[in-house]
Amino acid sequence: MPLLSAFLLLLVTFTFASTAAAETVRLAVAANFAGAVEPLTAAFRAETGHDASVSLGSSGKLVAQIRNGAPFDVFLSADQAKPEALAASGEAVADSRFTYAVGALALWSASKDVDVNNAAALRNGDFGKLALANPRLAPYGAAAVDVLKSLGLEDSTRPHWVQGENIGQTYQFVRTGNAALGFVALSQITVDGKRPEGSAWIVPQSLYAPIRQDAILLKRGAQNPAAEAFLTFLASPAARTIIHNFGYTTE
Hints:
By secondary structure, the protein is α/β, with parallel strands linked by helices.
């Protein structure tokens, strides 16, 4: 009996210590990564015991929030420039920055009546609205403008543009039929390597600059063990498998 009591006491002590050691990492995450971040944080919790809270938005808006004191520990941007700028200003830990995903752009329609196979869907002009993310705030929006410039279609399509604040809102414009076509992140229309609805043209990488998405530890999170643990997990093979399942590549 004394041996059993000692064992139970040890078990309770260990459980309490494990719970006490668990922390929460506050993540600022680019909207294009919304689908992948949910299974990633679930796997992170299961592996480490730490928790994670997620705030989604355009990379530009998230940077503004960070600079205005928002309590984020880690920033998952949709580009490299914004984490790099935060490191240069001392608001993030420079040597923690790395590319966690490389995104791809797709021209997508959610309608079964619209066949999107190539740039012809843009050239014929037979559509009402063309959705794209605000290029001043969202890297995927800037990439969309690059594509239109590369195709010589920027001026002819501009009257059709409807801009989302971020790529998540842009996706909703197309998903709900408020825009016939839209430039979205391939990850938004990919689950386990498949597209569940509509038709899409995966835009050739030659038409826009690579969308390298960097993660960085913010100054506020430098003392949070859960923040460092999340970045370590994000670079792991298990995390990369999840990321690949949503249409991204990794370096």
